[in-house]
Structures are given as structure tokens and as C-alpha cells.
Amino acid sequence: MHAFFALLRKDLVLHFSNRRAVLMSIAAPILIAAFFGSLFGGSGNKPAHVPVAITDLDRSALSQKLVAALRADPSLALSELPAEEAQAQVRAGKLRAAIELPAGFAAQAGRAMFGGQNKPEVGVVYDPSQAMALPLVRGLLTQHAMALVAQQTFGANSPVLKDARSEVAADTQMPAAQRQDLLQMFDSIKRVQAQTATPSASAPTSAASAASGALTGPSFSPPFNTRETEASARPELHYNSYAHSFAGMGVQFILMMGVDIGVGLLLLRRQGLWLRLRAAPLSRATLLGSRMASCALIALLVFAAIYAVAMAAFGVRVEGSWLGFAAVLLAFSALTSSFGLLIAALGKTPEATRGLAILATLLMVMLGGAWVPSFIFPEWLQTLSMFVPTRWAVDGLDAMTWRAQGLQEALLPVAVMLGFTLLFAALALARFKWEE
């Protein structure tokens, strides 16, 4: 037992002697747990407002009230845009959905609430990669439209009720008992309207709210239909979820590969091989630059192989610019090489570098939207994600594949990634230590 406890003590001393590695093993799960906890309400944070655009082609009092109600809803960040501009922003991933209220919406909606056949058709163009936002948009649109249409329909001197009563009275095919019940209902509504017709503005609203609360019966239905369409640069294209997942997971594992190359660099330094290289007439920039160049080339080849499998087996296609796609891959490969070298320079030892790499890589990938849809991030976290290079890498790859965007949509992601590459490389060259 004496030998057993001696070996046990030796392992504990060796493990805790590397304080950086111990710190990373504790900090990584804490920070990642805090990230997911903040997303799903653990700290009371609310998701960011869902960015949505609306186009009002009706321009009636009812449609303008509906636009105002949606704008005031805390779950949405609503903007009014022309239909073509709104759909273009949805295709580019800048908006989650675009709503189009058709001409004649107000005139048809009241009658449609009583089961009329000619319901207005509201168009909804949505981002298929953020399809979780579609039920939210649809539900809020139905909620506010039902309340406003009920208020208009059951308001004083409503022409919809008058016309509906006349149609019921003239319908000879309806059973007499049912026709009599409906006529009595219309008469009762008319008496309630007369009783609540006071100077106070709250009475009509209360009467309309009471009436709208009764719209849950089988005789009533939502006053419109929705025509839901995936946002795409070309109508024949459909969203391929593999395109986004290969972009996100490719970014994650290519970054990890870059870190492994950085760790290999530290192992070479520990073995004394760097001392031999330093004896040669080579500058620090030459030695580390060649390491970065080889890492970038390996990353490019691996990413190309990943996308080759995605295209051959999963139907992923570059629907946008091939030149832009190649530029994004090249920029990300350069970013990977500088990131791996930076993590090695900051970690200083192979053990600490692995812990730091796991923490940094996972946080960058999560903030980039590869794991969790970015629209559920709190607003501060969505702003922070714009300063993370993986967000630009995933967005750039999405734009060149399933979003079918042109070369111009690749320029900004490429520029941002190259900027981070220069920053990471400068920090790595300044912090890298040659001796173990």
C-alpha cells in the first residue's frame, strides 16, 4: 500500500502542477453551461426579437391596425418594406420572414370569419434554415388578426353582420331551427351593441373582446389563409439542411484540426527540435509562417474533401458563386492556421492548449450559429456573435450553397475572416515562446 499511495500522490502532483490545464478543465464546462443556460431562460434572459418584414398592399384601417399591433408585439422586430426588398432580405438571411397582406384583406376578412369561402390569402416567405420562427410568426399573425377583425365585425353598425343576417334569412336550404338560432344571435349582438354605445371608448372594445372570445366555436375560423413559401433565389430550389449542417460541423472540426497542429508544434518544441531549427539561418517568421501555410493547405484539402462527400452523397450544391465559395474556403483555411498557432502560443504547454482549444472552439462554433439557431439568442449575444469569425464562415458558406447568393455576398465574410487571420497571426508571433 505504501507504493500504491506513492504512485497516487505522484499522479495528483503531476496533474495539478500544470495550473493552466487544470484551470481550462474547470472553466470550459462552466462557461458552456452558462451559455446554454442563458439561452433557455436560466437567468431570465428573453430571446431576441425575431426580425420580420411586412408589406401592406391593402392600406385599409384594419390592415394598418394589424401592422401596428405586430410592431408593438415584444416577440417581433417588425419593419415595413416593399415586397421584393423584404423577400430579398429573407433570402440573404437578414430577416426570418416576410409577410404580405393582400389588397382587399379588410373587406374579405370579416365575412371569412363566419366560414366564408373567399378568404384573403396572406403570403409568408420564410427562411427555411430558421423554420422554428415560422410557427411563432404564424401564431402572432393569427392572434392579432382575429382580435382586430372581431373588433371590426362586432362593432356598432357593422356591415358584415347586416350582410350575414340577410344571407342567413334568405338561405332556404338551411334547417329552420338553425336559421332561427342564427337570426336570434344576430339580434342579440345588435342589442348588446346598442347597450354599449356610450361615449367611452372602452365599451366597444370590451364588447368586441367578449365577442372575439366566443370565436372558438366550430362555426368560426381564422379570417385568412396563409401561403407559406421557402425563401430561395430561384423558385425551383428547395432548402437542403445538409448544406447548413456540413458548413457548421466542417467549421468546427477543421478548427480542431488546426489546434492539433498547434499542439504538435508544442510537442516538437518540448522534444528540442526547435532548438535545431533555430540554429539554422531562419527567422521566427519563416519557421512559424511555413507552419501556418502547411496548416492552411491541409485545412483547405480536408474541407474540400468534406464538401465532395456532401455533394456526392447528400445532394449539397453550390447554387451561388463558385468563386465566392472558393474564396470563403481559402479565407477560413487561413483563419484556421492562425487560430491553431494562437491557441498554442497562449496555452504554452500541450496539456493546457488542449483544454483552451476545446473551450475556444466550442464557444466560437456555438456563437456562430452552427449548433443553436441564432434567432433564439438574447440580443446582446446576437451582437456579440458578429465579432466571432465562425459566424462569418458559416454565413458565407450558406450564402454560396443553398441561399444561392452572388459573389458580392462572399466579400464581407472573406474580408472579416482575413482580418481575424492577421490579428491572430500577429498575436501568435508576439506570444510564442521558443524554449520549453
Describe the secondary structure blueprint for this structure.
Elements: H1 2-17, H2 19-39, E1 50-56, H3 61-72, E2 76-80, H4 83-91, E3 97-101, H5 105-112, E4 121-126, H6 133-153, H7 159-170, H8 176-195, H9 202-213, E5 225-230, H10 241-270, H11 273-279, H12 284-314, H13 322-347, H14 350-367, H15 379-385, H16 389-400, H17 408-431
Parallel strand pairs: 1-2, 1-3, 4-5
Antiparallel strand pairs: 3-4
Please, could you describe this protein's structure?
- The protein has a 5-stranded mixed β-sheet with strand order 2-1-3-4-5, with helices on both faces.
- It starts with a helix and ends in a 5-residue tail after the last helix.
- With 436 residues, the chain is an alpha/beta fold.
- Helix 12 packs across helix 13, helix 13 packs antiparallel against helix 14 and helix 13 runs antiparallel to helix 16.
Keywords:
single chain; 436 residues; alpha/beta; five-stranded mixed β-sheet; 17 helices
| Sheet with the most strands: spatial strand order | 2-1-3-4-5
The pLDDT mean sits at 79
Specify the helix fraction band: 55-70%
Computed structural class: alpha/beta
Alpha-carbon distance between the termini?
Answer: 35 Å
What is the radius of gyration computed over CA atoms, rounded to a whole number of angstroms?
31 Å
Q: Which sequence of SSEs, written as H and E, runs from N to C?
A: HHEHEHEHEHHHHEHHHHHHHH
Largest sheet: 5 strands, mixed
Number of strands: 5
- Strand-residue proportion: 5-15%
| Overall morphology | elongated
Distinct helical segment count: 17
Stretches with pLDDT under 50, minimum 5 residues: 199-219
